[in-house]
Amino acid sequence: MALHDDEKTPPSLNEDIHRDGSSQDDYECEFSPQEQRKIIHRVDRRLVVTVGVLYCISLMDRTNLSAASIAGMNVDLGLNSLMGSVSKYSVVTLVFFTTYIVFQPPATVIVRYLGPRIFLSAIVVAWGAIMIGMGFVHTFESMAAMRVVLGILEAGFFPSCVYLLSTWYTRYDIGKRYSVFYILGSLASACAGILAYGLMQIRNPIYPKQDKTVYGRWRYIFAIEGTLTVVLGIFAYWALVDFPDKAHTSWHFLTEREAKFIINAVNRDRGDAKPEPWNLKKFLRGGLDIKIWGFAMIFFNTTTVTYALAYFLPIILTENMGFSIGASQCLVAPPYALAAIVMYATGWAGDKYHLRGPIIVFNMILCIIGISIMGFHTSAGVRYFGVFLTTAGANSNVPAVMSYQANNIRGQWKRAFCSATLVGMGGVGGIAGGLIFRFQDKPGYRPGLYACIACCLLTLLIVALITLGSYRSNKKADRGEIELEYHDDGDQKGFRYTY
What we know:
One of its GO terms (molecular function) is transmembrane transporter activity. It holds the Pfam family MFS_1. It is found in: Membrane. The structure is a single chain. The protein has 19 helices and two strands. By secondary structure, it is mostly helical. It has one domain (about 30-480): MFS general substrate transporter like domains (Growth Hormone, Chain: A). The relative contact order is 0.13. The model is unreliable at about 5-10, about 15-30 and about 210-215 (pLDDT under 50).
């Protein structure tokens, strides 16, 4: 999958001349456009692909409950029973997010100090071990406890990846990279159902005639996928790269001159490639920018829908649309394949035409149309078509929102705060997504559908408000009345918000 628009035209990272015609740095003059493209392609292969594959297993590990639920887990562990007005299954899904949210803010600080290779590979191996353990639990309480620990370990992964990617690319190179990163996660969602169906066919090799409720085949979903996670986590230690300022020390990934080329390009674009010393005041001061909370709320609305689909789509296909268990596991895949296509197309268009807000609006309109068809048409086949539109719109919006915030934030610690806040609110969306489809609302699940539509409409409103505020600020900056996003350690003026 090509990440550049045209091999004849160097990407924006290669534009090594200032607007006034002067060279930024002697290092950049040493590389021809062809050499610059090779450097960027090397970064793409090592960075985007590696974190994308790890995110693939992260998303698979946190959302495989839905596949296990219809494979016998709910019966074996008694998860269909209620705790108050909420099913135990919903409790197991949401306890993950309690620790997932709490432990995210310090993660972007820790990854800056320990480095991505050590931090990310360690937590991947650790949560893989927890996944293996989930295959051996026998009670609701044990499963809930495992999910709590899983939330602690996975909390550091996604915000660290978002932050890491944003340090390597300029504002109009990042959209496609975020899309490819999340596409690999969508492929995990697409293949998870098929993989789970295959794992369900495994018989207990020791006691092949043993009743499946004693040692249900759903357990293989956790045990085998957890083993795969541990193996990939170990491999990640050698595959991952560090931040640009330390890239030349990461297994000879880049030379010092090549790393300097990347750093200078990012500095020209937004002036924050150089690492800043830790400052709690600067980190927390990011919370004073209302845009950050707007981005976070958009991400909450988006993840509410994506997690609702991840946790309940196989159940809805079985109970609402009448498909068999095996068919439901496999029918999850095609909508996510469409989501991958839409995701990359919108990421490419956003980078090429410097658009962010309109991409989000398009995705949300697609999602609203899909939810309406999915919930209110009389034909099961047509409702399944609505699943395609809903899945494509909701999942495509995840990298779109990540690009939106990355384009409009400057400063290392403000960027770290924004990444943690964004993904933290995404975790809150995971809690909401785990609760909006209630078993007592089946088979129509109308309240959950109304909640998803409300989230999409709220996103449209927030994007409109942010766009209006950004437009006004850019006009004031053009008139010289203000200087946008200029921070204490910044060395670049002329920054403008992206709509």
